[in-house]
Amino acid sequence: MQKATIKDVAKLAKVSPSTVSRVLSGNPSISDDTCKRVKNAVKELHYTPNTTARSLRCEKSKSIGVVFPDISGEFYATCASAILKYARMSDYTVLFTESGHNLKAEKDSIKALLERRIDGIIFIGDNSDIPLIQSIAAQSIPIVTGDRTVGNIPSVTFTNRETVQKMVDSLYKSGCRKFMYVGETPTGQSNLLDRYNGYTDALKKYNDTTSVIFLEESLHGDKLKTARRLFTEKIIASLPDVIITSNDLIAQGII
What we know:
A 5-stranded parallel beta sheet has the order 2-1-3-4-5, sandwiched between helices. The protein has a 3-stranded parallel beta sheet with strand order 7-6-8, with helices on both faces. Helices cover 50% and strands 14% of the residues. The chain has helices spanning 6-13, 17-24, 32-45, 51-58, 74-89, 103-115, 130-137, 160-173, 190-205, 223-238, 248-254; strands at 63-68, 93-98, 121-124, 143-146, 155-156, 179-183, 212-215, 242-245. The protein contains 11 helices and 8 strands. It has 3 domains: 6-49, lambda repressor-like DNA-binding domains (434 Repressor (Amino-terminal Domain), Orthogonal Bundle), CATH 1.10.260.40; 58-156, Response regulator (Rossmann fold, 3-Layer(aba) Sandwich), CATH 3.40.50; 160-254, Response regulator (Rossmann fold), CATH 3.40.50.2300. Helix 5 links the parallel strand 1 and strand 2. The mean pLDDT is 83. Helix 1 crosses helix 2. The protein is an alpha/beta fold.
């Protein structure tokens, strides 16, 4: 069976194709009787609007792209769920992709998103793609970053430094004395640097000299595997009272 077109709907409803388009876009200037005829024709013909063609006409696709480094993590999955929730409220479609911490894969994914004429991109986490993000922003494509900052690009972040300070304070007051921090090398990523600084700031207040810090760039990729190796090689030997990590995936690996 051939798929119905907007012309088929217009013919059945006895209106012009442009009227069908205005009805489907919610134009308030169309009479109730005309709207009813068009909607009945759409239902009878099982017509599905061509969103790609509509985006070409309106220069809006009502869709956004979201780039994650690894969507399987609990934090990223929670972000994805929230983005979907609020996108639906605004009648937007969300296209998710993940880089796997691979810059080429991320470039290919973004190219595919842009070819679909998405209205903007959200970048969550990671830090190896800053020049890529800046180059896209230079093309006047709306961008928002999450859990990090990139220049003057709008961002949604957390009070990482203050939060880690409060966490260390609370643990110290509860009796912990031998602390360990395990994380990625924070260079180039604002959220990681803030968490690390929050940790060191808090322990300086107590003149701590026993804290152990392990920073490894390799934790940026295969976090779980590397964190387990760190645990067996170094953490048991140190026997800390508490371990603070730079992200939840490293914590899960240690656990």
